Task: inverse folding
């Protein structure tokens, strides 16, 4: 994806990923790969292509702005708050980046990163990763509901097709 929904600067607070001169390109690669994977899974290829082509359009079409930034919607008598694709993608990128970078493939083989005066906390890491994956899944499922409900009766998101994704209990 040439234009991204999320940037390195979005990773603050509970999704903070330490980025330095050696890791910025790696994080951008994860952002590109995870955005395409998750969004094609959520939207289907046709709608993903439409979203991608609209990321450079000014003014940005409202249907995409609402999907990316979040929106409120009503189903029956109940109003819901959808957090948006940006929030969802941050949790998925965090999950994959942190999971995959616990070990590193080097010229001498696969090594585990270590720090002086620090101990590895694997159970905490597993809980942290599980929490972020499940937060991403919650917003993913909310996106499916948002698109389904706001799609009627005008088919704002024609060709909507998603792939089911589930929570995880063990990383």
Result:
């Amino acid at each position: 994806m040439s234009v991204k929904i999320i940037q390195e600067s979005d990773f603050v607070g509970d999704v903070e990923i330490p980025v330095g001169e050696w890791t910025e390109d790696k994080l951008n690669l994860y952002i590109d790969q995870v955005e395409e994977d998750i969004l094609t899974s959520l939207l289907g290829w046709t709608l993903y292509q439409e979203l991608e082509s609209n990321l450079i359009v000014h003014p940005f079409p409202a249907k995409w702005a609402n999907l990316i930034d979040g929106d409120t919607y009503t189903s029956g008598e109940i109003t819901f708050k959808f957090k948006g694709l940006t929030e969802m993608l941050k949790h998925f990128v965090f999950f994959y980046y942190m999971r995959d970078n616990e070990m590193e493939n080097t010229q001498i083989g696969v090594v585990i990163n270590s720090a002086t005066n620090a101990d590895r906390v694997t159970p905490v890491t597993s809980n942290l990763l599980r929490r972020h994956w499940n937060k991403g899944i919650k917003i993913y499922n909310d996106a499916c509901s948002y698109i389904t409900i706001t799609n009627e009766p005008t088919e704002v998101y024609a060709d909507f097709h998603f792939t089911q994704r589930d929570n995880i209990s063990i990383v």
User: Anything to note?
Assistant: Helices lie at 24-43, 45-54, 62-69, 85-100, 122-150. Residues 13 and 90 are 11 Å apart (CA to CA). Residues 122-150 form the longest helix (29 residues). The chain has a mean pLDDT of 84.
